[in-house]
Amino acid sequence: MNIGKQRPSILDKSLSRGKTEVSLTAYALLFSEMVQYSHNRVNSVNELHNKLSELGQRVGIRMVELLFVREKNYKRETKLLNILLFIKVTLWKSLFGKEAEKLDRATDDERIYYLIEKEPLVNRFISVPRDKSSINCAAFVAGIVEAVLNATGFPAKVTALWHKGTTYMIKFDESVIARDKQLDGR
Amino acid sequence: MSRQNLRAIDPKKVSGELFTLTYGSLVAQLLKDYENVEEVNRQLERIGYNIGMRLIEDFLARANPGRCYDFRDTADKIQQAFKLYLGVSPSIGSWSPGGDEFSVVLDPNPLTEFVELPDHLQNLRYSNVLPGVIRGAAEMVQIEVLASFIADSLKGDNITEIRVKFVKRLEDAVPAGED
């Protein structure tokens, strides 16, 4: 069909500088369609969260590539705290135009961190049905965070909870904590 | 610190990259779920149609565009809406002699910033949500149109072009239910 046409490679284009903006309405309606699409294909709240997380993960993986080239000058993060700050500051600013509100550490489990956001962009126009009040569509954002952590070598599971607005609970793999302690020891 | 951090925050706007990547993730999900490119094209159009039906309300409230007296008015308003919602100004042109058909030429297409079609997906109409939005929005103001891509720079064409054709005015339309 396209024989004879030379398609320019995407790598010949210069990298997006991240300055373009679209209207919030357009984004909200697109996201709403994604939630409805996902909702029609699942049987439980848990499955819906997984589906939204999966959609977010594809975004997260690409953001890692983009931000480490554009904002971090190809330099990777090796420390746990630094990658969390990267997410709270750099990633959040690129995606949502502001930092996430708060980063906390669980007092009883050193593997668990909390990233807190009062009103996630994706939840602004979503009203949760009363009989399914545990639905939190920020599972999409949790997916983004999880993919960023996995792609940068900090395997973790991230879930979105209703707590002080929305709290993303980040539970790191045991190996991440062990490695971080080892790095600290040097 | 990067310059990006100095960007003024407009609460009515979101990052174009977030939008592009989110849309891309949806397309990838559809490809995974349907495993059939034609069906994905159809689904994307339908998603666009649903968005268009709701978007028109926002457009009427925000831009106060007034009535369309002919199809050229409609074309102008579609152009205006692209600017308002996607931040791009497509050119309108290639009118048919009867004035019932025109082209919307997108340069750039904000949906395809990071996109390259693999060889086995050459039949995918990646941005098929856009003609769907046009059809859905027009239907809500009682204009039935046909809209589809006739050229796409993702497929090696020089431009990205959506053809919009007037079909008929809908009289006394009952509001369409949600599909």
UniProtKB/TrEMBL annotation, chain A:
Transmembrane segments: none
Gene Ontology cellular component annotations, sorted alphabetically: endoplasmic reticulum; TRAPPI protein complex; TRAPPII protein complex; TRAPPIII protein complex
Location(s), subcellular: Endoplasmic reticulum; Golgi apparatus, cis-Golgi network
GO terms (BP aspect): endoplasmic reticulum to Golgi vesicle-mediated transport
Record's keyword terms, sorted: Endoplasmic reticulum, ER-Golgi transport, Golgi apparatus, Transport
InterPro entries hit by this protein: NO_sig/Golgi_transp_ligand-bd, TRAPP-I_su5, TRAPP_component
Domain of life: Eukaryota
Pfam families: TRAPP
CDD domains in the record: TRAPPC5_Trs31
Main function: May play a role in vesicular transport from endoplasmic reticulum to Golgi.
Subunit annotation: Part of the multisubunit TRAPP (transport protein particle) complex.
Family statement: Belongs to the TRAPP small subunits family. BET3 subfamily.
The protein, known as: Trafficking protein particle complex subunit 5
Organism: Armadillidium nasatum
Gene: TRAPPC5
From TrEMBL, chain B:
InterPro entries: Bet3, NO_sig/Golgi_transp_ligand-bd, TRAPP_component
Any one of the GO CC terms: endoplasmic reticulum
Subcellular location: Endoplasmic reticulum; Golgi apparatus, cis-Golgi network
Gene3D superfamilies associated with the record: Trafficking protein particle complex subunit 3 (3.30.1380.20)
Principal cellular location given in the protein's record: endoplasmic reticulum
The UniProt record lists the keyword Ribonucleoprotein: no
SUPFAM superfamilies: Ligand-binding domain in the NO signalling and Golgi transport
A GO BP annotation: macroautophagy
Pfam families, per the entry: TRAPP
Keywords per UniProt: Endoplasmic reticulum, ER-Golgi transport, Golgi apparatus, Transport
CDD domains: TRAPPC3_bet3 (cd14942)
Subunit structure as annotated in this protein's UniProt entry: Homodimer.
Functional summary from the UniProt entry: May play a role in vesicular transport from endoplasmic reticulum to Golgi.
Family indicated by similarity: Belongs to the TRAPP small subunits family. BET3 subfamily.
Protein name: Trafficking protein particle complex subunit
Native source organism of the sequence: Armadillidium nasatum
